[in-house]
Amino acid sequence: MSEIEHDGFISELRSRDALAIVACESGGAKLLAAMIGKLGEDRPPSTTFHLAGPAVTVFNDKLDNIANRQLEDIADLKGAAGALVLTGTSWMPDFERRAIALAKKNGTEVWSVLDHWTNFRERFLPVDAWDGDHNADNDAFVKALPDRVIVCDDYALVTAKSAGFPEDILLQAPNYAMLDFKRKYKEQLANAIPAHDKRRRILYVSEPIADDLKATYGDERHWGYTEFELIKDIVKAKPNDAVVRLRLHPNESIDKYKGMFPADSDGFEISSEREIIKDFIWADAVAGVHSMALVMALEAGIPAYSYIPADARQQCALPHQEIRRTTNPSEIFD
Prior knowledge:
By secondary structure, the chain is α/β, with parallel strands linked by helices. The chain folds into 2 domains: 2-175, Rossmann fold; 195-333, 3-Layer(aba) Sandwich (Rossmann fold). Helices cover 32% and strands 17% of the residues. It has helices at 6-14, 26-39, 54-62, 95-105, 138-144, 154-162, 176-190, 210-217, 227-237, 276-282, 292-299, and strands at 2-3, 18-23, 46-51, 83-87, 109-113, 148-151, 170-172, 200-205, 242-247, 268-270, 285-288, 304-307, 324-326. It is globular and about 65 Å long. The N and C termini lie far apart (43 Å). The mean pLDDT is 91.
């Protein structure tokens, strides 16, 4: 394992003759967009973007003049000296997995960024290679890996090692997205107008899992709960002197929880903020399950809660001990 400091990592990207950016999910896209943002006008001469899903919006918000190309176009880098394919990672979507496989087939160097702390092996193995517990043959796992896997903190490094990643491909680099977030949060907080509502304000960050668990295991309650059940629990537990603001996942529609989350009732609302920073400034506490937002809340100095029912098969997988884990949703409102 090697570690590249802030300037060294950016210099490595800047030194490339060609750079192809591949992303699908929001988390990986935010990290990659922050990395590319640090390059400024000094991007490699040939920098291309191959985006799908929420990543398209993330990059358009962060960078100007993004021309999105087809994933298959990264094959144009075949034989190009100094070329690099840099990807995010996803659990269910196979967009980045396909990019890794294509780059390796064409002999193009490929690196992938881990933006979270869960499901590390599954982010690289083809879905059809998973077994019931995602413990596929290790040879298949190693074969699916890119040339480098980038982790962005000590927690992720330890997790990757314990998950069986070869140490010689692990690279630890700064989390540029988190650094950008902390700077922006501090700036906006300094200029924020204090909230007039004196009730306890809880930001609940939704995490869609039912469809993915159904596709993976054939059972949307494989973990012992769904996002719908958690929403119902939060609504039921809310006292009169509290407000719950629901922040939907980028993959969720505005009416997904209609009939179970009373957004039109006093004490309940759905966030309309494009940036989560504004929701953080509003909130007294942030709640969810495994969301990156819980870690961001910690970085902002806001109490973070992970609520999962006591009889669930999987508890909070985030390694950050500062997150307050609870099986009682009422504790979020204390």
